[in-house]
Design goal:
By secondary structure, the protein is mainly alpha-helical. It is built from 4 helices and no strands.
């Protein structure tokens, strides 16, 4: 008997949890928390997501989040000359949020595609069994 692979979104469930942690850190930063450990934590979370989800678009969005997060922390530091030529913190947080939203939208599409494929395979299997 040929066993059908189980439908699984374990990778999506895992990256959603990591994604939620990043959103919490962005919110904490917005509320004034600016701990250097936050910088490292988001880098680790983004890297974990990139390693977990095998979708180029999702990986690209997490790389954007990481890059903007680095810029956000650089924008928080006072410059040597007293002027800051980096984009403002509000703008960078907005870019991060947009990348996180695009990532979430893509995850939903992947999940729907997998569910449709699984449903189609179940229907096909049920049809073969009834014949």
């Amino acid at each position: 008997m040929n066993a059908m692979p189980e439908y699984s979104n374990r990778d999506i469930v895992a990256v959603r949890a990591l994604h939620d942690e990043i959103k919490k850190l962005v919110k904490a930063h917005e509320q004034g928390e600016r701990d250097p450990a936050m910088l490292r934590e988001v880098r680790v979370l983004c890297d974990c997501i990139v390693q977990t989800i095998r979708d180029a678009y999702c990986q690209e969005k997490m790389c954007e989040v990481e890059r903007h997060w680095d810029e956000l922390f650089a924008a928080d530091k006072p410059t040597r000359w007293g002027r800051n030529t980096q984009p403002g913190a509000m703008f960078l947080r907005r870019l991060i949020v947009k990348s996180l939203e695009a990532f979430d939208d893509r995850l939903k599409c992947i999940e729907e595609t997998r569910q449709s494929a699984y449903d189609a395979s179940q229907t096909s299997a049920a049809t073969r069994i009834s014949l």
